[in-house]
Every structure is written in C-alpha cells, then in structure tokens.
Amino acid sequence: MLEVHDLHLYYGQRHILKGVSFSVKEGEILCIMGESGSGKSSILMSIMGLLPKGAVLRGSIRWRGKELIGLSEGEYRKIRGREIGMVFQEPSLYLDPLFRVGSQVEEAYTVHFGKKGARDRAVQALKRAGIQDAERIYRAYPHQLSGGLKQRVCIAMAIVCDPPLLLADEPTTALDLTVQKRILHLLRSLRDEGKSILLVTHDPGVVAECADRVLVIKEGEVLEEGDVFRIFDAPQHPYTRQLISTS
Hints:
The chain has eleven helices and ten strands.
C-alpha cells in the first residue's frame, strides 16, 4: 500500500532522514522503533506532507502507486483523512478547547463528504475508538476528558473517514499502563478489520504488544528490519539489542 524509497530530509544543513526505505502492507502493523530524536516522527510528517517551510525532501513516497512527493497542497488535502489518517502524539495540542468533541470529529468527515450524516458518523467513530458513552463524549469539551479519552477522540478523528492507512505517532505516551493497553488493543482491532497501521514508538513493550513487523531507526538511518519475532528473538544490530534490553 505504501512504499518509501531512499527518503532524505534536510532542515537547512541538518540531514534528518538518510536514505530511509520501507513498505507497509495491507492489514499489518509496522512499528518504527527508535530513541527520541531519531527521525521517527519526521517520517510520518513526510508522508502526510506536513513538513515545516524550508524543509527539503528527496526520494520517493508512493501511496497505492501514486507519488506523494511534489503533490500540491490541494491534492494532499484530498488524501489526508480520507485515505491516510493520523493520530498525533499529544492530543491536547490538536483538540480545540473552544469546540465540543463532536463538532471536531464531524469536521474531519465533512471536509471530504459534506454535512449529511456527519453526526452519525462522528458518534460511530467515537464508539469504534472504544468510547462506550459516545453520546456524552460527543457533547463534551476536551478539557472535561482524561488523557486516555482525549487520545481516543483523536483516534476517532483519524478513522471517521475510514481511511485504509493510519499513522500513529507515539499514541500511548504519558498514558498509564491500563489505558495504554486499551489503546494498543484498539489498534490491533483496527488491524484485524483490514486497516494498515504505521506506528511510531520508542517503547519496545509497545512493539512487542502489537507489531507485525519492526523498523529500527537511529539518527535518521534504518539499522534493521524484520518481523517482530525475529527482531526480539535474534536482533542483528547492537543498537536493537540495546533498545530491547531497556524494556
């Protein structure tokens, strides 16, 4: 579904991504694992076309055969949300405190499909994101929600248009262990529905919990790639062994 080949990213003189290549298959969870500052989030932002002004991106990012690098902003808007959804790392930064949850989830839908049926789709998305009392949360403001609920709302926003690919940037950071397990269970459920998920994390425990395949990255370079059992049972690179030993 997604093919990234020889991806290089520059912020001025800084070389952030250095020849990154990988693919994401249909119905799998690919985890990108590495320490903070390794370039993991930059990969997701490159795919979504959300890099800061002045960034230089080279290489190839093909989504279902379509090259994304060089797309106009108008063309990218047709893809974001509808074909590729994204769950950002800190939900409080992406939820507007002035608007109710429901209107924010609806907005992600109406951009692509119009207002008809938007409320029902928003409530349905909240339920799919594991929110049992979806009607109440629909009417709530973000400040009235716990961190775990805010993250689920952000997942609802990412899946309301039913995109086949979901990008998730550290979706369990700063959540307690119980909530973290629920979020990971939700991601596995989405995978079982046929969704593809590209999950960024620094936590080997998260990788072990939900990954099908693993990409290990350090300082913008891919060091190792393999299925989750091979990576944990027989890691080839010393850096991979170091990451796993800290879990």
